[in-house]
Design a protein that fits this description.
Layout: H1 9-22, H2 24-48, H3 53-83, H4 89-96, H5 100-120, H6 122-131, H7 135-141, H8 146-157, H9 161-189, H10 192-224, H11 229-237
Helix pairs in contact: 1-10, 2-3, 3-4, 3-5, 3-7, 3-10, 3-11, 5-6, 5-7, 5-8, 6-9, 7-8, 9-10
Length: 238
């Protein structure tokens, strides 16, 4: 079955699961590296300055940067799988690191715009999140400027905003919220083992929620452009 075709919400999830299973070793190794690096940075802020609000804010920012980097890495891993390339941690880092400053800047600006929209009202925030949902895959693969990445994301999704928002609400939000609810419930009852289980569940489900926007990016290009595997190969090779 081709990844490069028009999809239903169900087929997008199935493709994400299939990609996860076929790349599970690489995905979990990369996830482990991010947890070690960014977890250590967050611990520095939280452990040594537990009462400092600035340190707490810095820890939140670092965690977001880790998420943006993970999204970019998943973009490369998914793209390699789509065209049948052998994926790996070293190859992914080699592709992402030269453009990491732009990817992180896109992620930060995207988060700020969505946050401002949420502060105004929930609906503008959701609309902004949907318009900019493809920005990091765009920044990773197409390597345009920061603002062009945001505009390109909005352009690709135009005409499908509500449909893409529905897919996000159907799959991405539950995958993101389920482990967080489990951790919160475990903390409320004081079960450390359940807290650990919830954190492990969050780590295991994160690649799925990261893969779906990448597949949406490809599906939008299939719907709107003469897009095929050859173009992906060219994107990965430049």
């Amino acid at each position: 079955m081709s990844y490069l075709s028009e999809k239903t919400a169900w087929s997008l999830l199935k493709d994400a699961v299939r990609l996860y299973v076929s790349n599970v070793k690489t995905i979990l190794v990369f996830c482990g590296l991010l947890i070690v690096v960014f977890g250590a940075l967050i611990a520095l802020f939280v452990v040594f300055e537990p009462e400092d609000e600035a340190a707490g804010l810095a820890a939140v920012i670092v965690s977001f940067l880790g998420m943006f980097l993970y999204q970019s890495a998943m973009t490369v891993l998914v793209s390699d799988s789509v065209v049948g390339h052998e994926s790996g941690v070293a190859r992914t880092l080699k592709f992402v690191l030269p453009r990491i400053h732009k990817i992180l800047a896109v992620g930060i600006l995207q988060a700020i715009i969505v946050l401002l929209g949420m502060l105004v009202l929930l609906i503008p925030g959701l609309f902004a999140a949907t318009r900019l949902n493809l920005a990091i895959p765009v920044a990773t693969l197409e390597n345009p400027s920061i603002m062009q990445s945001l505009r390109r994301s909005a352009e690709l999704g135009r005409g499908f905003y509500w449909r893409n928002l529905g897919i996000t609400a159907l799959w991405v939000l539950p995958l993101q919220l389920l482990p967080q609810v489990a951790v919160f419930a475990a903390m409320e009852v004081g079960e450390d083992s359940l807290v650990l289980l919830g954190n492990v569940l969050q780590i295991l489900l994160m690649p799925l929620q990261m893969a779906i926007p990448v597949l949406l990016y490809y599906e939008m290009r299939v719907r709107k452009e003469a897009f095929d595997a050859t173009i992906i190969v060219n994107l990965l090779d430049h």
